[in-house]
Write a structure and sequence with these properties.
single chain, 278 residues, alpha/beta, Rossmann fold, 47% helix, EC 2.1.1.197, Malonyl-[acyl-carrier protein] O-methyltransferase, SAM-dependent_MTases_sf
Length: 278
């Protein structure tokens, strides 16, 4: 069951003010994503101003760093959430003259955008929300100038593996048909295949795992909710059925995964560097 974009927008709108305080992994992903730019920034800016598209700018942390790293850059920053865009605009303050904020669904916006507009496309922890990733990658290739780059980070299928395992155990213990809770993330190989099929030349595609630890399962779930990322593909359940499921899932999570450091939550982090062939 696909996740409603309107629901995603509403959740990020509601959690915009608490996002930065809880998006610890996303901030680490931003730093890692920008490392190739730090090495290549002089070569990128040598021939003049750089036109940048940022997809899913959120509260503007990555936007701010892009403007610092690339002094001649002009950034078009797209996000679905108006509340996130307001915070991003506020963060930039004096640098706002070098950035245009656009409230839009990138999949629709890219399809309507002009050819060969951008030298660089950057996206931090956003591509997991794409409904039509291969089609969107084709559109992004079209709006990129020959020789232009695509840098993005996203989450892989081992993300929250403990949570998914605990839900499965809970459904089976209660004699219910298992459902997927949360997004289904695409694998490294799936991204490779889609990028190449769309026409991108893939230079670097790598992944790693990282873990956060929480005092309790409830704290972990609240942290995910506090950044608006608590979308689910499961059918809605209410009342005693949901309460018993959550209680059993929590018990399974603690029984099988709790350790001295607390309750672990694993993230699989994927990083991509690609280029539009000249």
């Amino acid at each position: 069951m696909p996740v409603s974009k309107n629901l995603v927008k509403q959740r990020f709108d509601r959690k915009a003010e608490t996002y930065d305080a809880h998006a610890v992994v996303q901030q680490e992903m931003t730093a890692e994503l920008l490392r190739p730019l730090q090495l290549a920034r002089h070569a990128m800016t040598a021939s003049g101003p750089v036109s940048v598209l940022e997809i899913g700018c959120g509260t503007g942390r990555l936007t701010e760093r892009l403007l610092q790293l690339l002094p001649s850059a002009y950034v078009s920053a797209v996000d679905l959430s108006p509340s996130m865009l307001q915070l991003a605009s506020r963060r930039l303050n004096g640098d706002a003259s070098r950035c245009t904020f656009i409230e839009a669904d990138i999949e629709q916006w890219a399809a309507a955008s002009a050819d060969r507009r951008f030298d660089l496309i950057v996206s931090g922890a956003c591509f997991q929300w794409l409904e039509r990733p291969e089609q969107t990658l084709r559109q992004l290739l079209r709006v990129t100038r020959p020789g232009g780059r695509l840098l993005f980070s996203t989450f892989g299928p081992d993300t929250f593996q403990e949570l998914h395992s605990a839900f499965l155990k809970a459904y089976l213990a209660l004699g219910k048909q298992p459902q997927r809770h949360g997004l289904s993330f695409r694998s490294l190989q799936q991204w490779t295949d889609m990028l190449e099929s769309a026409g991108w030349r893939v230079h670097v595609l790598r992944h790693k795992t990282a873990a956060q630890y929480f005092p309790a399962v409830r704290t972990f779930l609240q942290s995910v909710k506090s950044i608006g990322a608590n979308a689910s593909q499961a059918s809605p359940a209410q009342g005693l059925g949901m309460r018993s499921l959550m209680a059993e899932m929590t018990a399974c999570y603690e029984r099988h995964y709790a350790c001295a450091a607390g309750i672990p939550a694993t993230y699989e982090l994927i990083y991509v560097q690609a280029e539009r062939p000249s």
